[in-house]
Amino acid sequence: MASASDLRILRPLTWANMSASERAQLCARGLSDIFDPALRSSIGAIVEDVRQNGDEAVCRALATFDGVTLSPAQLAISPEEIAAATVDPALENALIDAISHLRAFNEHLMERASAWSIELEPGLFAGEKITPISSVGLFVPSGKASYPSVAYQLGVPAVVAGVKDIALLVPPAPGANGAVDPAVLVVCRLLGITRVYRANGPAGIAALGFGTESISPVRKIVGPGSPAVTCAQVEMQRHGVATMMLLGPTESLLIADHTADPMRIAADLLIEAEHGTDSSVVFVTTSIELAAQVDAELVVQLAALPEQRATAARASLGPNGGVVFVSSLSEAAEVSNQYAPEHLQVAVDENAVDALVDQLVNAGEILIGQHTPFSAANFLIGCPASLPTSGFAHVSSGITAEAFLKRTAIARSNEAALRRMAPSIITLAEHEGFPAHANAITNRFITGDHS
Predict the structure, then answer these.
(1) In-domain check, residue 125
(2) What are phi and psi of 146, to 5 degrees?
(3) Among 41, 54, 151, 381, which one is least packed by beta carbons within 10 Å?
(4) Is residue 261 part of a domain?
């Protein structure tokens, strides 16, 4: 008989035995790093430097934090460099494949996001018009690795939404003398994004928000990144720039019962676990036997990973996450809803899938079955893959074309409808102490008719 004490990789937890504070501790990932006072102070200093000194500060941050010496004239990547970027044909075909799925998904969203109007009462109409935001800055990380997938996951929705001014910011590749991954530039070429910059993450985000001599400002900035990058986006909110909360560090939660294949479960747990030592991965199961089999598989599969990735995975599955034992799938849903994962996969008996999914309400995405792994969604399926982390799936959604749209209410009333509403308007205005609000009605209909 398997025992939780036999597990070597997964930190064992039993939901029913956990106190409220222990449950909260499991769910409280990421925020302490992002809002660390020392980090906020250092990022605030970088942001202020960029606000005051523009390009000079952006180049200074590149030299200090990235070891790259560039002049202001080199911050912008030229259209010629974008046009000349090439990658292996297999990689370009994969990028085109992914972009086609994302485009189809977001074009369908746009078809649903149409203007509308309703007659609330005779002569009174109200509705909305939907328009793209004017400008956006897309941040594509390039620290632990290069992420052309992030470039298209952000870029396609912005392009499909119709944003006229799209800027993309990517830090130079480590040790590449200021060069960026050509795959990111190929994505830009495929999407028609021509305003592309190389800069340090936090400093570049500040530059996009304030504008510098070389970098034009934008009204919204989105993109995942390190705690420093996320902290910079939060800091820019103080200066009137819109951002999205929060997109990193990465995390996943997987619910499985006794019917699941342990080899596939282990492989799927490692997908997000390998990102970094700040990632969090939680395995929720009704079966101690399955957990023991998965743990044994993890030992084998971890041995095949490069040491950097294996080290990250051990942290993600151990102190940062673990296996949570539950007595039922309903209890599993309770765990997941409280955790509110960025990525959620369900691997349970087919007869139990619908009932379980109906109970799952807090997640960036829900992937159903063992033929829908996180990597497929991250790279190719077409659903949003830049998703809320750190529990923000309780209140927000992934990045789609809707993230780049705004809704403007439109109303029209005829005289009869306004006369019908007049007593209520006047009563409310008098109650709240706004005589001009009331006068706008009484001057029309009591003092005299100026229509």
Answers:
(1) yes
(2) -100, 145
(3) 41
(4) yes
Where does a domain end: 381, 396, 429?
A: 381
Judgement on whether residues 49 and 21 belong to the same structural domain of the protein: no
- Which residues form the domain of 9? 4-30+248-381
CA distances for 425 relative to 120, 430, 437, 440, 443, angstroms: 16, 9, 8, 10, 13
Residues 292 and 354 both lie in one domain: yes
Domain end, chosen from 333, 359, 381, is at 381
C-alpha distances (whole Å) from 125 to each of 8, 119, 380, 408 are: 64, 4, 42, 14
Number of residues written out for the chain: 451
Is 342 known to be catalytic? yes
Domain identity same for 298 and 269: yes
Q: What share of the chain is helix, strand, coil (3-state, %, to 5)?
A: 50, 15, 35
**Judgement on whether residues 199 and 344 belong to the same structural domain of the protein:** no
DSSP states of 325-382: E-SSHHHHHHHHHHH--SEEEEE--GGGHHHHHHH--S-SEEEESTTS-HHHHHHTS-
Residue 201 and residue 78 share a domain? yes
Determine which one of 343, 371, 402, 430 is catalytic.
Answer: 343
User: Do β-strands 195-198 and 220-222 pair in parallel, antiparallel, or remain unpaired?
Assistant: unpaired
pLDDT, one tens digit for every residue, the chain (451 residues): 566 667 999 999 999 999 999 999 999 886 666 778 899 999 999 999 999 999 999 999 999 998 999 999 999 999 999 999 999 999 999 999 999 999 999 999 999 999 999 999 999 999 999 999 999 999 999 866 678 999 999 999 999 999 999 999 999 887 778 889 999 999 999 999 999 999 999 999 999 999 999 999 999 999 988 889 989 999 999 999 999 877 778 899 999 999 999 999 999 999 999 998 989 999 999 999 999 999 999 999 999 999 999 999 999 999 999 999 999 999 999 999 999 999 999 999 999 999 999 999 999 999 999 999 999 999 999 999 999 999 999 999 999 999 999 999 999 999 999 999 999 999 999 999 999 999 999 999 876 554 4
Q: Which of 251, 272, 342, 365 is catalytic?
A: 342
CATH number at residue 307: 3.40.50.1980
Residue 343 appears among annotated catalytic residues = yes
Residue 280 lies in a domain: yes
Task: Look at the pTM and tell me if it is higher than 0.85.
Answer: yes
273 and 236 in a common domain: no
